[in-house]
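Two proteins were folded this term; both appear here.
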Amino acid sequence: MITNANDLHLVYFVDILQSLKFVGIKRMQFAKKSLGVGAALILLSQGVGAAERPKTMDEMWKIIEAQQVQLEAMKKTLEAVKPETHKTAPDETQAEVKELKHKTNVLTEVVETLRTALVIPEAKEYKSSYGLGPAASKVYQVDQGLSIGGYGEVNFQSFVADKGDSKNNADFERLVLYVGYKFNDWLVFNSETEFEHASTGQEGSVGVELATLDFLLDPMFNIRAGMVLMPMGFVNQIHEPPFFFGNNRPEVERAIIPSTWREVGAGVFGEVVPDLSYTMYAVTGLKASEFSSSGIRSGRQKGSKAINEDMAFVGRIDYAPSSMPGLTIGASTYLGNSGQGEIAGTDVFTQLYEAHIEWKYRGLEFRTLGSWGFIEDADLVSAANGSTVGSANYGVYTEIGYDVLPLILPNTTQYFAPFFRYEKIDTLASVANGYQDDLSKEQDIYQVGFNYKPIPQVVIKADYRNRNTKAGTKPDEFNIGFGFIF
């Protein structure tokens, strides 16, 4: 029975918390809101003015603790009412006891739910956002503040027969830390710092691969500036180990598209329509004085005191029809001068084009990609560099894998996918007059293996790779390793 204003406030508190519980109070964002509402109502029931309401989470915790004391008092009151009294008490007393039991049970349950929600944060879904990998996308899912993620991968490589001077090896290939900060709903900082090969000695290094400010203005139009990843291919933007087959990234996306490829720049991205997305940047250009017979990879400036005499444009478009979930069709292009004022008589206009298709259907994963590059005045570049630089290069690959575990264990959450990949690559597809082709740069690569994920964030990989060139066969290799994201 409601006898005074305090009881009325308490009933309101119970009703509101019950409603919040039924709409998903276990989610952290709702728990925080409900905590504030509940705290305010508790204070009202105690006659506290608005000026004295809690301003910090610590104050709210104190209110929760005080409410638990009240709950204990309610229980003692109930215990003091003997069962015999229930039988002989007036209807009014029995009604009060029943109401008190109801309030105690509901408040106890809701307080425990709030405590759990505050201690155990809401699990975030691993998904890609704005062209970045799932771990790098964590910052876009928080309400505000700091976000930390990362990934790593370890590989063991053994050469099989005719290995020549090649030696079996083990490599902690990379450990990467993502740190992001969400200032508000429309301004986000994101970064990726990579530690390669476990040391800064020998071939190891530490580098910033991503450091951007995103201005999230509208789904159709957003701005990004800083150290940006070139939006080309599959791997350059999403290069975390659980999301590509094999221990090594495809050679096409290393030699032709020089992943991981990043430069200082700025641009825009968004969705023209819900199924059609785009990205466009203006960036510092490549450095042609570092080009070689192995391609443009060494010409990346990586934002390290980059010469900016010549800039470049890079753009990408992807179509993912909602009528065919899992299908993505896209293309990208890079255009810009690479001379940087270092090679007399030419600006070294450099072009790179890429097209790709990806299809994920149930357990099936299929990818195919082709990329073609052209370098102007390759003869002048070759003469300046003392190395034959191709005027044209290309690479194509296709791969297919299938998660077979659901066929054996229909309710499993684990993943086991055998895969096959074929690549054809030539960094000297065409050379300038007077320069000799290097037949070892044209390769056919066959690879088979599997990816096993005991949980989505951890992958164990094994694969066998066979390489053939027109200059002879390179040693086959067996690779085994593991990777993770968090």
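Next, the second protein.
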Amino acid sequence: MRILFLTQWFQPEPTFKGLAFAKALQALGHDVEVLTGFPNYPGGKVYGGYRIRAVQREVMDGVPVTRGLLYPSHDQSAFRRILNYCSFAASSTLLALTLRRPDVVYVYTPPMTAAAGAVALRLFRRVPFVVDVQDLWPDTLAATGMVRHGWMMRAVGAWTNFVFRRSSQVVVLSPGFKRTLEARGIGRPITVIPNWAPPEITDQAQHLPAPAARDGFNVVFAGNMGHAQALGVVVETAKRLAREAPDVRFTLVGGGLGRDPLRTAAEAAGLDNISFPPARHPSEMGIVFADADALLVHLRDDPLFAITIPSKTQAYLAVGRPILMGARGDAAAVVEEAGAGFAFQPEDADALADAVLRLRALPAEARAAMGRAGAAYYAERMSFDAGVAAMDQVLREAAQA
């Protein structure tokens, strides 16, 4: 089966369903070609070794990759972000129509504009496509504050529904997403396939040492720091625990638009129990996780985030450290069902502080048991192999239909 893998983000950019996923589909006997943009995420700057041009073709570890023109941007400007999305939608649509006809298209979203090429192939060449929904548009745009104009929200919503209703199947990452789309009446089969952790993380997790006995308790957050993560609560919690539990420290590793304001707030408060190491590639995160006593997930207290499972959840489960889950709904249910840590009310500094103190008070072996339970849950239900097999079945069904 010939599969066109359509995504705006691809290696060397950090992405969950990227090169390893394409290679896994190849290993199942499929002919896979990737159509993507020039790497510029998350900094909005084109990566070294690349320059923007109309088209560039390369082969990455045996996978043919075609890159289309886009406007590189990932900042707070809604106009530039829209230009980034729409430029790739236009170039990828033109390129998709020039490539050898696939049997099925796999579309990774967001952004939902990335599906434009798949829609064009469906309308003009009758190629079925499967859309993989990582964020619900326009809901996510409203929740993160990126789009505030009513007319723009309606336009995005209309496009999103247009895409869904022309797809052959829809894949979502959580039961809450499925319930929401079913309520919208999109009229297409919807399959829940949880995300898996990046292979770089799972490879390191196999060799991660057991938590070391030491003074202090280190809570680690790893990933993007933006509006959706609402990490100001960590600074407020650090203020309280600086007095009550000076051995507790917070380590926030990563980048994003919120990183500098958070660091400024921590410095203004004179906090020395919170640090902001620079972002690391997933292949270099082992040393960070090895020094963690607990791993933190946090999202804004918004109804949208009660039906999502942040991708870092799978990585944290695989790593085998206790998880502090600051989110409601599906994500909290995963941690509680796995016995992998504690959930707490998001955007509540006292709730986070209490969860940290509760976890810290447990014997080291009890915390280690939580980590093992999380790793076992991940291996059984969310592993790379399980996800690839499920996606392969969906793509085959779409192509046959």
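The chain has a mean pLDDT of 92. Residues 2-196+383-400 form a domain with the Rossmann fold fold (CATH 3.40.50.2000). These notes refer to the second protein only.
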